Prior knowledge:
Layout: H1 2-41, H2 45-48, H3 63-68, H4 73-104, H5 111-123, H6 128-137, H7 145-149, H8 151-154, H9 160-171, H10 175-183, H11 188-199, H12 201-217, H13 220-225, H14 235-251, H15 257-261, H16 269-285, H17 288-297
Amino acid sequence: MQTAIGKFKTEPFLFHTFNVLIMLFVATVTLYPFLNTLAISFNSGVDTTRGGIYVWPREWTFKNYDAVFASGKVYHAFWVSVARTVLGTVSSVFLTAMLAYTISRKEYIFRKPVTLIFVLTMYFSAGLIPSYFLIKDLNLLNTFLVYILFPGAGAGLISAFNMLVVRTYIRTLPESLIESAKIDGASDFRVFMSIILPLCMPVLATISLFTAVGQWNSWFDTFIFASSRQELSTLQYELMKMLSSTVNSNANPSLSSTAAKDTATMITPLSMRAAITIVASVPILFVYPFLQRHFVSGLQLGGVKE
C-alpha cells in the first residue's frame, strides 16, 4: 500500500520535471537565434568573421548601428512603415471581418458562390505583371494607397485565408445574440459593430498580428510600385538597399573608403545584416504584448454552444 502511494506521489513530480526540461529546451532553441543576432550586431565586424560569437559580443561596438542610422532616410522610412502598417492592418482586418460576417449569414443566398470565388484566389493568381498593369491603370503607381489596397506586391486588401478563419469563428457564436438584436430593431451593420466585432476580438487580434507583420516586413511592393518616390520608401526597403550596398562595397574594397581607413571596425555584411535584422524586428515585437490578452481570452470565448 505504501509503495502504491509513493508511486502515486512520484509520477506527478517526474511529469512536471520532464515538462519543465522540455519547455526550457524549446525556449532556448527559440531565443538563441535572436540573442545570437543581437550579439553579432554589437560585435566588431572583423572580429565577427572569426566566428565563435554566441549570445555575448566579444568586441563591443556601435559601428554597425551607426552605419544603419547614418542616413536620415531611415527615420522617414520608419514612419512610412508605421503608417502603412497601422492603416493597412486596420482597413484589412475591418473589411475582412465585415466580409466574413456577410458570408456567414444563412439568409445570404450568394454566400457559397462568393466563398468559392475567394477560395479560388488562394490557389490561382494572375501574377505580378498583370497586377502591375492593373495598378498602373488605376493610377496608383508611386502613391501611398498602393500600400493599403495592394500590400505585398499586389496581394490584395482582403486575405481569403483570414476571411475563412474569421467566418469559422463567427459561426461558433450563439445565433440567439444576433436574433435578439434584430428583434430589437438593430440593422445588420449595427449587429456587426456592436456584437460581432467585440466577440471576435481574439480572432481579429490573431489576423491583425499576421497582417501587421506582413505589412511591416514588406519591401518588394515598394521596389516594384513606389521606388521612384523617395518619400514613399519604407524601412525594409531602405535596409535592403543598405545591405546590398554593404555587400557590394566589401566585395570591391575600392568602393569602401571607410573600410580602407579603419579595417579594425570595418562593417562586414554579416554584422550589418545582424544590425539591420534587429532594427527591423524590434518595433514589431512591441505589438504582441497589446494582443496577448486577446489570445488568452480566446480560450474562454466560444464555449457557449446551442
